Amino acid sequence: MTEYIDNFYSDNLFNFDKRKKPYPELVDQELIFIDELFDDPIINSLIAPEGYSAPHRNIQPYQLFRMEILKIIKYPEISYRKFCTDEYFGKERKQNRRFIRLPLNTKDQVHHTELCHFRTSLSFKQLMNILVYILHHFYKSGYLENTVVHGVDSTELPSETNYPQCTVKIKGKKIRIYSDPDCDCGKRRNKRDKSHYVIGYRLHTLTAINPSTGHSFPLVSIVGAANHHDSLFLKPLIRLAQALGIDMELITADQAYHDKDGSILEETGVYVVAPSSEKAKLPDNILESPVRVTCNDLCEIPMIILGTSQGVINDNYYFPSTTIKIPVLIVV
After folding, report:
1. Rounded Cα distance, 251 and 210, in Å
2. pTM of the model
3. Cis status of the peptide bond prior to 103, with omega within 30 of 0
């Protein structure tokens, strides 16, 4: 993406779309930041449909894209029909009109049906192109300098319908069918004042962690039905992130994402650091209470800790901001 952006204007003698100062109509700092971030011709090239011809269009794809961004940030609760009216894009709404590049001296507007069709017409490839474009600017911002750690976690997205439309039995197994056929009933982690089950989806998100600041930034997410185990989505999430150009070496996660068989490390080259499962069976040479570790199940003499070392894990990986203690055990 960096090479694509750097070479985008290489064939042009002049860049007429580039401006030096922000528009005076834009006073909202958030909108000013987003307006300066987006390059309209590049956005057009990433989301334009096949056979796109700018002279034959009154409204360009980048304008519809800007309208979607404006609606999500400022007016998420209203419908498309109400959004595309004089109440939000009349001649007196100069900031909104300027942000989506509508002329200020006319009453031209975007019809709500065109905006509705735009979002549904975007392909997965076009959405990924926009995501990579945003990630390109995010990495250039400097917020992820010296970042070597990533994290994965999930959150529930409950559906509005909390009861099934019908229930059928297939091969002796009960199947519940909800109004949203993609959602399902899954277990929820123990949380106060919440039921043990959730009907809907689970959002699995990969974040970048900056050890020097302690801040984490969401990068990419995958949505699945709530009845699927979290571990099923770790490998697809890593592969998707790698396909987008995100470089990863170490991922920290909870018990649900544990790399039990080492297949994730073998296939993706990414280390997954997660606490062992509470349901894991201890080896025969380890006594849980009181904690005693022997050399093997035939040994009766427990090991003792003589000291600890910290900082260096091995010759290839070093985490200066993270203290890792390694117990040194001997048999007495």
Report:
1. 13
2. 0.69
3. no
